[in-house]
From TrEMBL, chains A, B, C:
PROSITE patterns in UniProt: RIESKE, RING_HYDROXYL_ALPHA
GO molecular function term, any single one: 2 iron, 2 sulfur cluster binding
Keyword list, A-Z: Dioxygenase, Oxidoreductase
Name assigned to this protein: Aromatic ring-hydroxylating dioxygenase subunit alpha
InterPro entries to which the protein is assigned, alphabetical: ARHD_Rieske_2Fe_2S, Cholesterol_7-desaturase, Rieske_2Fe-2S, VanA_C_cat
Pfam families with a match to the protein in the record: Rieske, VanA_C
Matching CDD domains: RHO_alpha_C_DMO-like
Boundaries of every Rieske domain copy: 7-107
Lineage, top ranks: Bacteria, Pseudomonadati, Pseudomonadota, Gammaproteobacteria, Vibrionales
Length: 356, 356, 356
């Protein structure tokens, strides 16, 4: 189950450069394209004529032309024209609220009337010149909540990412989970430790001694439906950790936008934003490649965990302190789902009232 | 749903050259082979001994020898012999009426008693020395009726085959659909147009100026259950079009035999017959290769259209004038299905009458 | 259906050398590993924390450490420890009786209390220095009983293995099937025949004239649940066949341990044990490679036979004299299944008696 009345990341602008994009989001098969004014549009990937996928077509005069028989679909899901045909009574297909913002295309797969672009989270690091960003996309065959669990409990770094960002002290540092408004925060501080390989690289890039003792932080922030932004980094030991001055630290934000495809698959947009050496394009690429390698290590674990859970649906999982972040996130999602259901139910009873 | 009491193309003779052929047709798993008199036989691909596929065996003395334990199957589905065994009471397997004619092997997957080889369509171009033929086979994961729709509405050439046989004028020419006996004909005439690349090739091959203005024709003829033969070609403008003399035209017959495998997959035998330069083997191969490329362009569209329809079973499709050929063909097929059902029902009530 | 209260071969020691092994046996997903004392352990491949597959982890201090968040699983299915956690009340997972013996790892997928290592068959050829052994493993998508049928009726050698061990005389020699205690024996003797290619190799390796007339034997011995050991070989004609002296014969034991994975797939441990030229490592490898090639010839037949049976569940198969070995084996298995069901039922009624 996934909430539908909310904004998800659908794709990145580069994915729309050559041709329309077919992507299923929250069970909805959607064709994305950019019209002639450069605005992104999203319509059901289903031609009302004969059911062909509109995404196999092309864009002309700002319309999505079906690649089978030339029906021209408007961004509102209404057929605009078709050679030699009167289209006024053609049935429409769904169109979806869609916004391009902060370097991503955002989609609202639920009820159109409820979509408010103001609800798209503001991403300071995507807008400010003080930040650089690099990222990528994985398709993973697991429920999106398993990915949220993964990111809200970084204990797994010790085991899954032992050779890059994992270290024994993660396990040993207590985890602290807080609920503030619609945000769940799980944080861990490790004092006077050695930096793991990935952060030694970061310190060197920032002109610091990679072998120095450091204070390390991990602050995972979940906001619904499935965004996880994680402050991570190290500072020379005793200088104030997360709150230390720029010249004694190397830090960044791990960016995770998680978009359900189906109950057992999802799109994972990952990346890293940093506010040091932002002009160093090579460093951006080096970090991106490193993150790609590290995050790939989670894939088999997540997909086989999903298979285990699908094969053992009756089995209850443990909810330990380290799982508190994921557990709180799930509660928040459950509340959204319940709200959507009761909205739908009241809409239904209104209909019934009209009908009777 | 597919009619079973009718002749379908099962395979081409070259497919039986080396060894028996396993092919599923209308849901029936069938082993095809050529006996020692050269006659093609078709039996259920199931050894009555232990269920091994007979198609993995070999032919000896005109019998299909099971490759597992040596049972020798006759073309009538009765076991002929087995080493050291008395086979008289072995249960039989289904045998299928099968005929080799006009360069194809034809199968009747329904009730054997109803099969009459005289119902196999006569193919003039396959028998006459005035014609040359080249073709191929695709396996496509879509219902066979989607392929009929495709061929009975060539509007799609403008979009799917834009670089070879498509041209804007197809869209603009009105389409005319007629029902004559058990044949549906959909035709389009385009007057004084430029020939598209494929037909420029045809004109050149026929000694005509490829840049001349032409009249172009497309006459699609559907006959049940799923044969579509299409007269296509161009003639110098004003010379009579389809009815013009041989020396001012380049024309051919697009051959389409469509055989259901399952509800969502099918075998597509395609080819082209032409009555000019029939001795030019290289031209035959060139046309075959070109047609292979062009017809390949339909595959993704058809398979994704099928997935869209499977995912949206409740959705009704439009029936425009350009769809009239496919719609009429569907009606004809539906009538056949209804007839088969009522035959089966009356057969059943006869049985019941006997039983009571 | 497969009996679960019995010992199956799970894997070979080399499969546990590098890391834990994930293998599904009789529908149970199991993680196998070797603890620090060298003892093999087998637990459900499911971490009680969050459902991760334990087989993706590693072994430390004799415990299987979950590769996701570091839970340490004991060989008894009880969590031994987890960083910063009290684990006493963690739910346990299944552990399985497992034994390393005769060069194989044996598993008891059923009720733990009933497992007695004394029931593991004694394999003389695996323990005695007078024997050499080489073998391999196939995963085959068919029910395990089809493999037993295959091995208990070597008629198929004539057809499936025509170029190596098959020969016409197999078909012609009568087959004799006996039931002795919990063993089914099917045997065939061929007198004064030419050795087939594989056995010509064997005779040469043993210093005999490969073109001499021989007496050939095949004695297939099935014991439940699914072990088939086959005495095979040739001796110079008239010297006593299977009972002849070592210097006029070449013989060996074909080893077949068949382990169900699911209703339609299985693990097939095959090999050959011989008591001549046992020091010749190259010969062992040559035989192993030859057997690999020969046994590979069965795969397509078995998998397509399975598909045929799955598609035709209503169809009854023949039970000829040549099938008697397989039929008797099936009866023995059916008796075991019935016994397991009645045990389960009586256990249930005991529970109910307690409850009321």
């Amino acid at each position: 189950m996934y909430p539908k009345n909310c904004w998800y990341v659908a794709c990145t602008p580069d994915e729309l450069e050559q041709q329309p994009l077919a992507r299923t989001i929250c069970g909805e098969a959607i064709a994305f394209y950019r019209d002639n004014e450069g605005r992104v549009a999203a319509v059901q990937d289903f031609c009302p004529h004969r059911g062909a996928p509109l995404s196999l077509g092309y864009v002309e005069d700002g319309l999505l032309v079906c690649g089978y028989h030339g029906l021209r679909m408007g961004r509102d899901g209404q057929t605009a024209s078709m050679p030699k045909q009167r289209v006024a009574r053609f049935p429409c297909v769904r169109s979806y609220p869609v916004e391009e913002r902060h370097g991503f295309i955002w989609i609202w797969p639920g009820e159109n009337a409820l979509a408010d672009p103001a609800d798209i989270p503001y991403l300071e690091w995507a807008e400010s010149p003080d930040w650089a960003y690099g990222g990528g996309l994985f398709h993973i065959n697991c429920n999106y909540q398993l990915m949220i669990d993964n990111l809200m409990d970084l204990t797994h770094e010790t085991y899954v990412h032992a050779s890059s960002i994992g270290q024994k002290e993660i396990d040993e540092a207590p985890v602290r989970t807080r609920l503030e408004g619609d945000q769940v925060t799980t944080s861990r501080m490790m004092e006077s430790v050695k930096a793991p390989p990935f952060w030694q690289l970061g310190m060197e890039a920032n002109g610091l001694d990679p072998n120095a003792d450091v204070d390390r932080w991990q602050i995972c922030r979940f906001t619904p439906p499935s965004h996880v932004l994680i402050d991570v980094g190290v500072a020379l030991a005793g200088c104030g950790g997360f709150d230390s001055a720029q010249d004694v630290r190397a830090g960044s934000i791990v960016v995770d936008f998680i978009t359900p495809e189906s109950e057992t698959s999802m799109w994972y947009f990952w990346g890293m934003a940093r506010n040091f050496k932002t002009d160093d394009v090579q460093l951006t690429e080096q970090i991106r490649a490193g993150q790609h390698t590290i995050f790939s290590e989670d894939l088999e674990m997540l997909e086989r965990q999903q298979r285990n859970l699908s094969d053992n649906p009756q089995r209850e999982l443990l909810k330990l302190d380290i799982d508190a972040g994921g557990v709180q996130a799930r509660r928040m999602i459950d509340k959204m789902l319940q709200q959507e259901r009761s909205q739908a139910a009241s809409a239904l009873s209104t209909c019934e009232a009209h009908a009777s």
